[in-house]
Each structure stands twice: as structure tokens, then as C-alpha cells.
């Protein structure tokens, strides 16, 4: 390469430099960013959408004790136990230490029930047997048909907070940078090395060239596609789609697992004021149009009802789906039996020595995945500093705190500022939260989308699912001058379209009235359905 | 404590106090029919005050309808089951005229229905097609049309209404539009509410102070726009007085619901109807309806105990999901009060399309009660359920009031026909 690269439009492409480029802003990618920053390595992190756009933003939020995997994958079980313990010590602001129960109902496999405690003990997982009566006293919503129950140290984890804190800490440590809505499109390769990564801003279409010493593919389910862009054919993934449901109320204090080999609708995880029920598991080839179906939703409800009968008549406020990447080794037919451990590939046999891929695994094990990856990267860079994430507490960033359920009202009451109006009434998110997020949250920018704001706060997470607060927050952003023309209306439209994907399959009962009102406001009153298509910058560039 | 059971006897019972129920009562009063009305206010409080007739006939046209009557003629051809296609045009016109002149006489002046749709302003700075607007909003429609130099006034502490937003979205279409922020007179610091502001503006002293505040920022504006806060019971007087003080027209833009114009209508009905001899049991859900041989009985209760209303005919105007007239269960959509069959798609999977704001809208909105041309509900076999039962408003099938921008149009027109039908039944019974 001699001349400086130019874009298709003929203009010079901006080039930026860094030690390490990390592709993928999920738990793993952000974990690597922090791990490396703690070793004084500068990183740039890109995500084609935003933090937690992949599996990290669409999972159960269960910090596994490991008990779920004691039969199918004892190695993962022990890994989960160890990692769970570390995270509870170092990252407590992201974790609710709820505890968990495994419960069996009439008809469940007696052999599995009998073997379960010994299997847990073998993996080092503390387990305590409870009588059905004791379990019902702890969790009154459990079915009266319970025949066995065990308590295990399950907990819940907020992946959004985690990713935001990781990025925030890395930024504080050595000015490592996060680039939202930046898609990796191609690599420039020569001499057994990646020379540069070509990226495109998926909002503006602007191209960016990133030159790094090392390149890390933390693309989760997209890791195979990314590896292929670098000419590597050694990442083989299968995709399994999982669908989950969020109930309007929190039904249990603890995580409730069905005491049977993993199957559909067998985990109920509390999160703040709601509960999350899931999951289903379906093979898919499609990574881009992953949406819940009515059949999956109904399946979860039917299965979950066996453990917690109230799920049959609960009000649901959202359903969502994401894809699990399954690293393919053999040709096992049952996706749930595929080892849930992760894979780190150094691609040296693909003739590249500055590229690696990390995928698979679990949210619970993201830190360990980041450690192993960072060890490899540091070694290649000649950096001898050891990993410190197992002991260094994750500091709490000011602008990262708004994802915590119940936190907004607390801060708001404490501040007692009558000028600070509430914009999201379901979750009590005030103007000051929006101000802080727009000014200094990781990935903040001048004209932020409503999705980006919602990801960094509780806005839109309540029963109205953003249908009111989306209007109010947009209005506020106009008022503060962040939105200056009809682009703001397009942001509203795309936010409501996005939220709808999570609503479509659960619109019955009260949610039908909610949805009717929302559409009456969005379309009938504001006319967003008739918004003229805006010419985007992208179109201008083409 | 035991309560006395109260019984009311009327010729007509109207169930539902949304726009359709209110319209039905107005038409019945006009015809001298003794009427009892019960039921929740429904979506009335969510209205902006704009009365839509028809903004989109579902032809896929890029623009909204300028001429709603042409749209209705289109519906007669392409969607003959649409409620608006089943009411003669003259009757629709007559219904709107009767409705708007009644509320105008009662103190909330409305423009007489005309030939074309108006382009009315929304709080987001978009416009919507509508048919008849309150007199307090008409100067806004005119100012946009004439491109007058206009200043939008918003208020410190009033959430959800931003003049900057209105201007940002309209500036390309309306270069003479600007905005200024003032403090509302005599309000404490912090958040202020449209309802409170509206009531405060009924006091002359507050109006004068507000006019002074506006004068200092209005610049060379020829017309002044405000959020909908111009009084609760006397909006026309408040508007006239404020324009006199400012020496130019002023107008209101609806705020996000529940907004003052909706509350105005509700409070007006609740005051006026009893004075005109109508038995009104507001805000109470009717529990059951029984069709006996000699009367229809509505069973309900309020704070003072059980109530039974006996009537010769009944109009079901209970609205859709938002008002409880229809209920969506996981397995299907039901009409919970009379248990009428609901026309609906075969599975829940067809209720909503994949795209929220897709052009074709959603099948769920087309579901509802099927009726004959006299707006009598039909059973599964297409037979009239009971000759004394009529249905009106958005509970009706084969219309999408949201995408069609035809909520008030369907409500007022179908109520008009339902009352005509009920009147005939009542006349027969009385003979
Ligand atoms: C339904 C479901 C339930 C789960 N439940 C749990 C649970 O309860 N507990 C648990 O521990 N684990 C759970 N998991 C697993 C866990 O969610 C994942 O293991 C973890 O989040 C993976 O994180 P990641 O960062 O590796 O991948 P991801 O979070 O998928 O991140 C990959 C990122 O890469 C970005 N990307 C892709 N291509 C490009 C490109 N070309 N350029 C730029 N960026 C790109 C994507 O936008 C995405 O943000 C669940 C998974 C699923 C699907």
C-alpha cells in the first residue's frame, strides 16, 4: 500500500491508531478492553450497533452458580462457580445476590433429582436440600406440586451496567476509546499480519480506518463472519436462538430453576421489579432478523407455569430473542448438550499472528474469557503485566449508574430538586439523568438516539415500554438543542419501531390497551407513520 | 351498611361515555328521547380536541386526504363494511353539525364542519389532518396556512411541550415561526401542570400578568401560539380576552394527553347532561346487560349502591381495548359485557404486522363488532342479536380509527345512525 486509502467517494479516509482494536461491544469485548487497559495497553472498541447489542443485551441475566451444567458440562459448572464468586467480590454494583432454587415438580426425572446434590458437590457448588414446604415458605409463588427443592448460590447480573462500567473504567485508566455504531467491514492484510481495519459508521456512512498492533474478534455470534473477513476459516459456529419474556411484576425473590436437564422455559430470573422467563432453543441461520415468535412465547409460559403457576396469568411487558453462538466441534444433535465453554483461537495456523477470536461461553464467564484473550494479546505485545481483574474492584462510574432498577427514584428523591422533572414515569427517570448520559456516559455523543439513551438508563423499561417517555425525552432533547430538525422525529420513530419488536408477541390483556394508546399517540396524533423518508448522510455519500 | 337499590327508567340506555356515547346522548336529547347514560369516560380524556372525520382511506396515497368526502366515497367502493361507508353522507354531515353546534352552545365553540380537512398542529411540530377544531385552535390552522409571523410561547416548568421542538420541525415549512419561553404568573418553582394553568387563566388578573410576560418577548409576531391551557370552562372567553390584551390572535396547540381539551369536553358533558334531563351515571362500569321481553336491564353500581337501568333500547358504545369495550385474551378477542361475537383474525399471530409503523397498519384494529346497516350487532350466523341493541363508535369492526384518522368520524356518524334506529324501536314500543 503506497497511496493513502480513499473512500469510494474519493475522499481520504480518516485513520486512527491504537495498540489493540477490539471488535464487538458485548460483555467479552468490553471485558477485554478493561483488562488490557489495566495492563496499560491502549484499546479501541467498536460495535456495529452499541454496547450489548448481541447476546450480552438479550440474555437471562443469570449469574450461574454452575448448578445448571453439573450434568451436561461439569467443567463449565466449576468455571461458573469460580467466576461467580469473583464477580460478586469485584463487581457488586452490577449484581444482585438473590440466591437460587432448583425445584422439581411431579413427573420430573427422579434419577436426576437424586443425583443432583452429589453432582453439585463434585463441581464445588454449595447446595442445600429443602423440603417442599420450606421452599414454598421462601417462595410463595412456587407450585404446590413441588416434589424436591435445593438452594444454590445463583445471582443476577446487569450486563448493561457491566459493559458500561468496563468501558468507563478503561477510558479512565488510559483513555481507551469506544466507537459506537461502527461496523468492521474489511481488513487490510499483508505479510501474515492485519495492517488495518476498515470500518463504517452505520449511522452516517462515514468510513474509518483503524490501525492497531493486535486485533481481537469478540463478535459473539458474528465471530465467524468477522474471522472470514480476515481470511480465517477455523471458526465454525452454529446458532441457537433463545426467546425470553419479561413480566410486569417480580414474582420471586430468588432465581428459580427447574430441576431437570436443561429444556425450554425452565428458568425464572428476577431483575429489579420484574422477572425474566426463558428460554427456548431453536437452531437458526439468521443473525439479523432475530425476533420472538408467538409459539416461543406461549411455550415459555406453558413450561414456566409448571414451576410458578402465576406465570399463566401474569402481565408480560416484553419478549426478546438473541442468538447463542455454539462453537462446533463434533456433530452433536442437541444444542443444549454442546459444551457451553468458550473458544479462543489464535489463528496462527491461518497465517496471521496479530489476530485472535474469542467466542462462545457465558456472560458469567466473560471475565475469564477476557483474561485468557488479554493474556494472549499482552504476550504478543511483549507486555508482561499480569491480569488483575480477579482482584481489582470495578469502580462505579457516575454516568453508568442509571441502568440499575430503582436507582433513579432514589437519586431523584435524594437530590430533591423541584426543577428536575421526571421524563420516564414508569421508571422515574429525571431530566438530570438524561443530561448526564448525553454528556458523559460511555458512547455519549451530541445527537444521541433514544435507543442509545434507553440502553444507558431505565427509560422505556417499564410497562409503557417507552411509548410515553420516548415522546417526552425527545421533546426534552429538542428543548436542550440536541435535536435540531426532523431527525429527532426519525429517532422517535425508530425507537418505537424497535420497542415494538419486543411487544408484538405479548400484546394481550392490559398490554393491548397500552399498545392501542401508544399507536394512537405515535401515529394518530404525531403522524410518525407518515414521516417523510429523510435523506440520510449515507445516501449522500453513495 | 346496606344500600338501597336504585332503579331508573328511560327509553334509551347508552353504555359508554367516550365520544360515541356522548354523541349518542346528544342526538337522543335533541330528539326528545329520555336517556340514561353510564360507563367509563374511556378515551375521551385522551383526545386532543380535534375532531377527525377521515384522513386516510387506505388507498396507499402518499398524502393524507384533503377532501374527506372523496375518501368516504372511496371507502364505499373499496371497504363497504367500513362504518363510514354505511352512513349516508348527508347523515354524516348532519351528525357533525348537530354535535358541534351542541357543544358550541354549551360553551366550547367548534368550527362548523366544512368540505375539506384542516391541517392542525401537534405538540411535536408535525401536522395532522382533521375535520373540525375548537375555536381556540383555529387561528393556528389559519396561521400555518397563511404563513403569518408567529411566536410559540412555552413555559418554564411545563414538561412535554417545547416551543423549540415545534419550531425545529416546522421551520422548513413555516419560516416565520419562532419561539420564546416565559414563566407562568404566580406559580411556584418546579413542575407546572396544564390543568392548573388552564384553571388559573380563568382569573382576569392572571391573564393580564401572562399577557404582560408575553408582550415582552413577542417581537413582531402577528399571531401567538400557546400550549392548550386557555381556560377549563370558558376557553372562548379566555382566548378572546387574551387576544384583546395582546392585540393579536392567540391560539392553542394540544399538549400530550390527557390534555386540557379532553378534560374540558368531559367536564362539560358531566355538567350539561344532567341539566338537560339526562340520567348520567359517570365513571361506573356496567356489570351486565339483560334482555328481558319487556325491557333491557343494565346492572351497575356506584358508591351509593346498586343501580338498575330499564330501557327500551340500548346503544353499546364501550370503545376498544383502551376503554374496556373489547378485551384481548391470549387465545382471542372478546366483547366482555354482552358477549357479542368479535370479528377477528384466526390467530394471535395475525393481530399485529411485523412492522409497527408499516403502511397497512395492523389487523387487530379491524376487529370488532359486526353490525347491519342499522348498526345492530350480528351474531355468528349474521342475524341481528336483539332488535333493541345497537353499537356505535370504535368498537365496530372493519375500520382502523388510528391509521384512518377517523376516530371521531366513526363515533359521531355511527352514534347518529344508532340513535335513529333506536328511536324507531322506541316509537314502536310507545305506540
Ligand atoms: C437467550 C440467551 C440467554 C442467555 N442467558 C445467559 C445467562 O443467564 N447467564 C449467562 O451467563 N449467559 C447467558 N447467555 C450467554 C451470554 O449472553 C453470552 O455468552 C455473552 O453475552 C456473550 O458475550 P459476547 O461479548 O461474547 O458476545 P455478544 O454480546 O454477542 O457481542 C458481540 C458484539 O459484536 C458486535 N459485532 C458483530 N459484528 C460486528 C462487526 N462486523 N463490527 C463491529 N461489531 C460487530 C455485535 O453488535 C455485538 O454487540 C445467554 C445467551 C442467550 C442468547
Automatic annotation (TrEMBL), chain A:
Q: Which UniProt keywords apply?
A: FAD, Flavoprotein, Oxidoreductase
Q: Does the keyword Thylakoid apply?
A: no
Question: What biological-process GO terms show up in the record?
Answer: glycerol-3-phosphate catabolic process
| Requisite cofactors | FAD
* InterPro entries named in the record: BFD-like_2Fe2S-bd_dom_sf, FAD-dep_OxRdtase, FAD/NAD-bd_sf, G3P_DH_FAD-dep
Record GO terms (molecular function): glycerol-3-phosphate dehydrogenase (quinone) activity
Q: Does the keyword Transcription apply?
A: no
Domain FAD dependent oxidoreductase: from-to ranges: 19-371
Q: Highest taxon of the source?
A: Bacteria
Classification via Pfam families: DAO
Q: Which family does it belong to?
A: Belongs to the FAD-dependent glycerol-3-phosphate dehydrogenase family.
Name the UniProt record assigns to this protein = Glycerol-3-phosphate dehydrogenase
From TrEMBL, chain B:
Cite the FAD-dependent oxidoreductase 2 FAD-binding domain residue spans from the record.
11-410
Q: Which domain of life is it from?
A: Bacteria
State one Pfam family annotation.
FAD_binding_2
In the UniProt record, does the keyword Membrane occur? yes
UniProt entry keywords in alphabetical sequence: Flavoprotein, FMN, Membrane, Oxidoreductase, Transmembrane, Transmembrane helix
Residue stretches spanning the membrane: 12-29
Q: Which GO terms describe its molecular function?
A: glycerol-3-phosphate dehydrogenase (quinone) activity
Q: Which GO terms describe its cellular component?
A: glycerol-3-phosphate dehydrogenase (FAD) complex
Protein name per UniProt: Glycerol-3-phosphate dehydrogenase subunit B
Lineage per the UniProt record: Bacteria, Pseudomonadati, Thermodesulfobacteriota, Desulfobulbia, Desulfobulbales
Amino acid at each position: 500500500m503506497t497511496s493513502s486509502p480513499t473512500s469510494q467517494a474519493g475522499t481520504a479516509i480518516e485513520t486512527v491508531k491504537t495498540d489493540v482494536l477490539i471488535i464487538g461491544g458485548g460483555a467479552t469485548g468490553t471485558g477485554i478492553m478493561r483488562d488490557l487497559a489495566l495492563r496499560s495497553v491502549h484499546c479501541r472498541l467498536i460495535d456495529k450497533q452499541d454496547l450489548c447489542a448481541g447476546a450480552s443485551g438479550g440474555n437471562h441475566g443469570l449469574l450461574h452458580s454452575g448448578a445448571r451444567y453439573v450434568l451436561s458440562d461439569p467443567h463449565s459448572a466449576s468455571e461458573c462457580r469460580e467466576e461467580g464468586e469473583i464477580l460478586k467480590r469485584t463487581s457488586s454494583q452490577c449484581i444482585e445476590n438473590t440466591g437460587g432454587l432448583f425445584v422439581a415438580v411431579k413427573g420430573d426425572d427422579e434419577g436426576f433429582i437424586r443425583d443432583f446434590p452429589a453432582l453439585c458437590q463434585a463441581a464445588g457448588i454449595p447446595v442445600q436440600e429443602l423440603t417442599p414446604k420450606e421452599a414454598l415458605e421462601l417462595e410463595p409463588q412456587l407450585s404446590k406440586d413441588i416434589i424436591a427443592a435445593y438452594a444454590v448460590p445463583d445471582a443476577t447480573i446487569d450486563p448493561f451496567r457491566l459493559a458500561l462500567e468496563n468501558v468507563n473504567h478503561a477510558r479512565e485508566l488510559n483513555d481507551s476509546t469506544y466507537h459506537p455504531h461502527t461496523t468492521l467491514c474489511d481488513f487490510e492484510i499483508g505479510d501474515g499480519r492485519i495492517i488495518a481495519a476498515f470500518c463504517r459508521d452505520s449511522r452516517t456512512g462515514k468510513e474509518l480506518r483503524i490501525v492497531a498492533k493486535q486485533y481481537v474478534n469478540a463478535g459473539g455470534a458474528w465471530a465467524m463472519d468477522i474471522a472470514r473477513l480476515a481470511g480465517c476459516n477455523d471458526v465454525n459456529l452454529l446458532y441457537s436462538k433463545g426467546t425470553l419474556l419479561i413480566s410486569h411484576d417480580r414474582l420471586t425473590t430468588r432465581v428459580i430453576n427447574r430441576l431437570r436437564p436443561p429444556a425450554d422455559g425452565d428458568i425464572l430470573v428476577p431483575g429489579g421489579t420484574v422477572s425474566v422467563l426463558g428460554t427456548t432453543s431453536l437452531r437458526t441461520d439468521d443473525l439479523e432478523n432475530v425476533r420472538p415468535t408467538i409459539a416461543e412465547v406461549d411455550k415459555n409460559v406453558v413450561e414456566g407455569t409448571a414451576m410458578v403457576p402465576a406465570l399463566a396469568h401474569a402481565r408480560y411487558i416484553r419478549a426478546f430473542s438473541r442468538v447463542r453462538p455454539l462453537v462446533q466441534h463434533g456433530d452433536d444433535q442437541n444444542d443444549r448438550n454442546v459444551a457451553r465453554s468458550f473458544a479462543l483461537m489464535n489463528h496462527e495456523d491461518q497465517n496471521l499472528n496479530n489476530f485472535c477470536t474469542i467466542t462462545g461461553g457465558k456472560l458469567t464467564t466473560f471475565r475469564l474469557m477476557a483474561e485468557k484473550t488479554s493474556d494472549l494479546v499482552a504476550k504478543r505485545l511483549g507486555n508482561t503485566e499480569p491480569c488483575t481483574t480477579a482482584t481489582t474492584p470495578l469502580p462505579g462510574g457516575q454516568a453508568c449508574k442509571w441502568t440499575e432498577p430503582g436507582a433513579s427514584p432514589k437519586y431523584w428523591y435524594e437530590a430533591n430538586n423541584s426543577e428536575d422533572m421526571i421524563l420516564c414515569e414508569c421508571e422515574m427517570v429525571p431530566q438530570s439523568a438524561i443530561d448526564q448520559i448525553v454528556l458523559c456516559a460511555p458512547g455519549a455523543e451530541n445527537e444521541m438516539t433514544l435507543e442509545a439513551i434507553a440502553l444507558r438508563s431505565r427509560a422505556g423499561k417499564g410497562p409503557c415500554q417507552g411509548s410515553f417517555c420516548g415522546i417526552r425525552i425527545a421533546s426534552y432533547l429538542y428543548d436542550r438543542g440536541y435535536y435540531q430538525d426532523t431527525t429527532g422525529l426519525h429517532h422517535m420513530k425508530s425507537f418505537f419501531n424497535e420497542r415494538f419488536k419486543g411487544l408484538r408477541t405479548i400484546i394481550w390483556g392490559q398490554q393491548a390497551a397500552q399498545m392501542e394508546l401508544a399507536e394512537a399517540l405515535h401515529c394518530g396524533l404525531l403522524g410518525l407513520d407518515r414521516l417523510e423518508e429523510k435523506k440520510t448522510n449515507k445516501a449522500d455519500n453513495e | 351498611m346496606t344500600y338501597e337499590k336504585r332503579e331508573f327508567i328511560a327509553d334509551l340506555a347508552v353504555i359508554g361515555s367516550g365520544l360515541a356515547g356522548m354523541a349518542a346522548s346528544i342526538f337522543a336529547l335533541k330528539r326528545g328521547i329520555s336517556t340514561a347514560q353510564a360507563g367509563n369516560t374511556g378515551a375521551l380524556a385522551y383526545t386532543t380536541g380535534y375532531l377527525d372525520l377521515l384522513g386516510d382511506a387506505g388507498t396507499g396515497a402518499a398524502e393524507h386526504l384533503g377532501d374527506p368526502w372523496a375518501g368516504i366515497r372511496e371507502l364505499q367502493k373499496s371497504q363497504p363494511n367500513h362504518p363510514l361507508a354505511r352512513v349516508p353522507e348527508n347523515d354524516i354531515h348532519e351528525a357533525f353539525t348537530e354535535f358541534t353546534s351542541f357543544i358550541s352552545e354549551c360553551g366550547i365553540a367548534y368550527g362548523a364542519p366544512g368540505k375539506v380537512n384542516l391541517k392542525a398542529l401537534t405538540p411535536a411540530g408535525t401536522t395532522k389532518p382533521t375535520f373540525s377544531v375548537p375555536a381556540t385552535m383555529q387561528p393556528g390552522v389559519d396561521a400555518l396556512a397563511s404563513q403569518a409571523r408567529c411566536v410559540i410561547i412555552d413555559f418554564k416548568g411545563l414538561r412535554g411541550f417545547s416551543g423549540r421542538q415545534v419550531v425545529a420541525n416546522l421551520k422548513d415549512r413555516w419560516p416565520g415561526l419562532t419561539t420564546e419561553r416565559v414563566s407562568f404568573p404566580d406559580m411556584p418553582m418546579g413542575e407546572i401542570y396544564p390543568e392548573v394553568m388552564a384553571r388559573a387563566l380563568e382569573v382576569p388578573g392572571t391573564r393580564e400578568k401572562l399577557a404582560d410576560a408575553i408582550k415582552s418577548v413577542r417581537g413582531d409576531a402577528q399571531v401567538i401560539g400557546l400550549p392548550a391551557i386557555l381556560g377549563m370552562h370558558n376557553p372562548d372567553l379566555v382566548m378572546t380576552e387574551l387576544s384583546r390584551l395582546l392585540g393579536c390572535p392567540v391560539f392553542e396547540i394540544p399538549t400530550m394527553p390527557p390534555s386540557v381539551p379532553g378534560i374540558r369536553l368531559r367536564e362539560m358533558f358531566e355538567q350539561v347532561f344532567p341539566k338537560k334531563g339526562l340520567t348520567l351515571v359517570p365513571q361506573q362500569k356496567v356489570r351486565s346487560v339483560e334482555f328481558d321481553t319487556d325491557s333491557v336491564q343494565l346492572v351497575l353500581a356506584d358508591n351509593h349502591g346498586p343501580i338498575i337501568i330499564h330501557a327500551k333500547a340500548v346503544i353499546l358504545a364501550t370503545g376498544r381495548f383502551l376503554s374496556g369495550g373489547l378485551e384481548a385474551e391470549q387465545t382471542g378477542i372478546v366483547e366482555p359485557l354482552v358477549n357479542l361475537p368479535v370479528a377477528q383474525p384466526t390467530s394471535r399471530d395475525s393481530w399485529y404486522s411485523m412492522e409497527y409503523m408499516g403502511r397497512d397498519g395492523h389487523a387487530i384494529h379491524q376487529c370488532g363488532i359486526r353490525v347491519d346497516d342499522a348498526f345492530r350487532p350480528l351474531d355468528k350466523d349474521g342475524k341481528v342479536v336483539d332488535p333493541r341493541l345497537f353499537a356505535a363508535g370504535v368498537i365496530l369492526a372493519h375500520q382502523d380509527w388510528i391509521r384512518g384518522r377517523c376516530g371521531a368520524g366513526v363515533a359521531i356518524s355511527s352514534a347518529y345512525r344508532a340513535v335513529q334506529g333506536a328511536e324507531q324501536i322506541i316509537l314502536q314500543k310507545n305506540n
